[in-house]
Specification:
- There is one protein chain.
- The protein is globular, with a radius of gyration of 15 Å.
- The protein is α/β, with parallel strands linked by helices and 178 residues long.
- It has one domain: Rossmann fold (3-Layer(aba) Sandwich), CATH 3.40.50.150.
- It starts with 26 loop residues before the first helix and ends with a strand.
- The protein has a 7-stranded mixed sheet with strand order 3-2-1-4-5-7-6, sandwiched between helices.
- Helix 2 links the parallel strand 1 and strand 2.
- Helix content is 27%, strand content 26%.
- It has 5 helices and 7 strands.
Amino acid sequence: MRVIAGKFKSRRFYPPADKWPTRPTTDFAKEGLYNVLTHSVDFTEMKMLDLFGGTGSHSYECISRGCTDVTYVDQHGPCLKFVKGIAEKLEITDAIKIVRSDVFKYIAHCGIQYDYIFAGPPYPLPNLSSLPSEIFKHDLLKDDGLLVVEHDQKHDFEHAPRFVKEKNYGQAIFSFFE
């Protein structure tokens, strides 16, 4: 896992491999996504939410590009410990809030709006297709905000409310919502 651009460009991180429950976004897919985002968001002005944060890759990428207000949410203890360690190593603990929670419970109770929400759930998650509607139902996205959901070819959001476009990077597909 590496940071693509910004002040931590090319920094690599190696999450433990044993019993690690995550599927980090590939560098190829992440680079494609952030090439798109660079033309549509101002990282220095945004409040970002990283759902199913896993290794924290998207959180670090946004902070590296100038974001100073990131909320990382995951429920797996070793993931949270790893992200906390990386945040301390990078000296970004003031820019990232690490939350241990079930993502759907967090969505239902957080009461905060974000400029950019990235969700990288496990592909076989049974209720993955309800994720965008839950986020919009609980009003987590600001009016001019952007939601990106990573998924595989088994999920299709093309007819979902507020769907804008889809970008395909091999196994990883990103659906964009506004």
